[in-house]
Amino acid sequence: MAKIHIVERDGSEREIDAPSGEQLMEALRDESTGVEGTCGGSCSCGTCHVYIDPAWAAKLGPRDEDEQMMLDALGEFVEIRESSRLSCQICVSDEIEGLKLEIAPEA
Q: What does the radius of gyration of the chain's CA atoms come to, in whole angstroms?
């Protein structure tokens, strides 16, 4: 389990426990944060877009090519930041304990 600190779309903040070994998208979806994960985690819909706190961005490693392509496509509809990530591409582990993120606007 990893505690994740979330800023919701309305600006409110909360903390959730995300089970280790699953995609972060699943935990965010299951906690009704507005993350949909429509494609089930295959990096093809962008409904799990989040902004990672800049202090954490480097700790998660770089985006892969598929994730970058999806974020580029989303850029026509929502703000893409340097710290933008698709939460389906982040695996929950003890290493992300305390991760801070903001749920991105809906595209």
A: 12
